[in-house]
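Issue 218. Parser rejects a valid record. Input:
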Amino acid sequence: MHKFKKCVLLVLSKLGVGGRYLFSKFLNAADDSITKMLFILKENKEQLNDYLVDRKILLHSIKQKQVEVESLRLKIAETDKSDKDQTGRLIRLYEKLELKTDELAHYKQEYHDVQQSIEASKKEIHTLTDEKNQVLDNRNGLKLEYDQLRIVMEENLFKQKRLEDELSRLKKKQTEFDSADVENSTKKEIEEKMKEIEVLQQDKHIYEDKFKKVEQDLMREVKRVAKLSGRLQTVQQKLHGNEQVMINFENTIHTKTEQVRIDRQKIEQLTAERVVWQEQLDSNQEDHQIALLELQDIGQKLSLKDDEYTAQAIKSEEKIEQLKTELLNEKNDFALLSATKGAPAEITVEALRILEREYEPRFQTLYAGSKFHQSFYKDFFSLVPPDRLKVEAIIANLERNFDQAIIKTRENTIKTHSGETINEYPFGADHAGRIYLKENNNKVEYFRISRTKNGRGTLDQKKVIAWLKANV
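Output the parser choked on:
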């Protein structure tokens, strides 16, 4: 304050009465503008505090929703993976069931074939048994006839032998007795015996032929019985084997049927589990979508809050800019007067050192993603405090939201003698201010600042642009 008073007294000592009046008018206008600016800044501070509180709450809500969304996303991924695993198991079970069903159908077909073979064997056994019984009846009849013929032939032979004995006796008697009566009687008796023997021999031949025929028929029937018995035994063995095979098939079919039943139960269980997993997946996806919408809604609220604060800040900026313009006009008038009287520089060396100690370390700490050239600092320190706030707000916005904030740069660019391309970023309510910057290796480089475009002062656009073209 002492140095400020010393500088003021120095200026006043060099001014006449008219200059002192102008300086007094300038001080009054400056005091009025600064008072209004302080009121606006106080109001802005309260708005900023409210904005920061609301923003903190919304950011906390966003963080919670992001955690919820990520948790639901992981649940969806886990559920989807489990569903895919269940689907794979279900497909494998279906394939396994198909194979077992085919095997079961094959065994049932073979069982049916064996069953038909058993039925055929039973029918054949029944037929063979009937045929064997019939042949046995024939054989027994022939055997009875055979036995009867043998008895008849034995009786015939016995009678023939007895007659031959009697014939011998009669012939002997005929020899022993020579009388005619005895001889005639014996001769007659011999003739009768010979006739009887002849009849018996004829019967014998008939019986022998008939016996041979019955014997042949009997042997044929015996062979048929033996053949039928062998065939019947073979079929019975086959029937027994098929019955054992059928028992084995029944056991196998029972086992396979039980396996198919178990696999079907597993499929039904897995299908029910898949329904539950799908319902859970649908529920998680629905919750995830709701959480995303809520997150989007909170983001929109935050963006709306940012826009509201930005609008309020712009409105305040416009008010301050208006006051600043009024103050600048007074300042320029006073600067012209001071220049004609040889007044010293507007910022002293001591003031410049104070500003350097205050701003440079802070900028390097807060805005590590930016690079500030010394020429930028000199221009920045030459600005009035409200303009410094505007410029720093733009720096902070570019630092945090570069992709969104950079779109405000002007289409016109500056080409320097070294081939660099410098962008112009406007600031101030009158849109006369410019920040000259460029992006380089993910860092924003700041070169210069201009504040006027009327040709007055060192921060005039044309002068600054000319300097950039020549020195960058």
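Fixed in the parser; the record now loads. DSSP finds eight helices and five strands in the chain.
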